[in-house]
Amino acid sequence: MREWVKALPLGLGLPDRAASVKPEDAASNIAAWLQLLGVEHVPSWLTAPGVDNHVILGSLGVGAIYAFLVWGVPALRHGGKPRTPHENEESLRQQLFDLHKLIESMKVTLEADSIVNEVNVDTFHEVFAITVRLVKLGIPIPYLPKYEKIIQYENFNKKMYQYFSAISPFLRDGDIKLATIWAEQTLEQFIPSPSAPSPTATVPVHPLFLRAYERYRNELGMQMREAIPQWSVYQAAFARGIAIWTHQMQKNFIFTLSDERWTGRSDIMATDEWGNDKEKIRRRLGIGRNREVPQGGIAKWIFEEPNKKNELGDLSWVCLLDGRVIFRQDFEHGMMIGPLRVRNKGDDSGQVLILISDDSEFRSGRWKQETIIGVKATDCVAPVWGDDH
Asked: Is 137 exposed, middle or buried (0-12, 13-18, 19+ CB in 10 A)?
């Protein structure tokens, strides 16, 4: 309970003080105070000498009742004992899980609103109510002054969906620390760059990419900026291709082996069922019981474009990689990202993917893969759905 609420009994004591202190000489007289405040016709019953005692007793009585309601009732609810650290922790975990359920429901609404490309007033109010609860827990929200310009009418549904998607799994698991970190990192990614960098040879090529860059220098062009970590990377290996998603870019990529082509797509709105409901994904994609299934935006992309399933073939393995040690560097006509895992599970070598873009929009193009000599594959932070890699 807020401190100003608990301090209200102090205000209830003001009439008590007024009844015992005259405005000019500390003599007892409520009527004198009323006249000082501009009340000209004071009722006769307020001028009676005994009224001061009634006011004092009444103020003390009201203050006692209020103090009991504020402090006494909560204490009785807990048996007169303060909460233990374990009880506080359980209470916080329940708050976080309740927020997770609210957010997952809200993501469905945001997705529906994005289809008709409008911001519903009720949706906005519900989103705002959720963010108020988040900021009380110390989790950064888009409405803070630092981020207030990144959420506009035209992108409200998409940006709030991406923001909620980033923190919801950690709220579900009761991990407020990671929820806070991912909220901040996601909001930082929403802030647009001041201006597009110019290609320059003065920016160093990351050591992981030097060998590959020497081979594809003419096709990639000059480097645009220094390499940056990706925070978290989801990688899936198929019989005839690869799929990845990076948190830093908020983008999905599919790489097919047959034609050595890649396609990129901005992070697809995927509700929690695409990430957690393995059996529903299996039914939607028509995947057999003895086969692994993809998840998240990759799964939804394959669902929306069934030809991708035929191009990629069966899924071999999936895992979440520690993106803090995976780097991406942009060039004039493409980018490189690594070290990623190779498709062969028995090989622990790291590899870099070279993406050469067809156009300036960076939507598709050709790709190559190169083994990084002396660098092992990035470890899986957690195998997805229990497959031990």
From this structure: middle
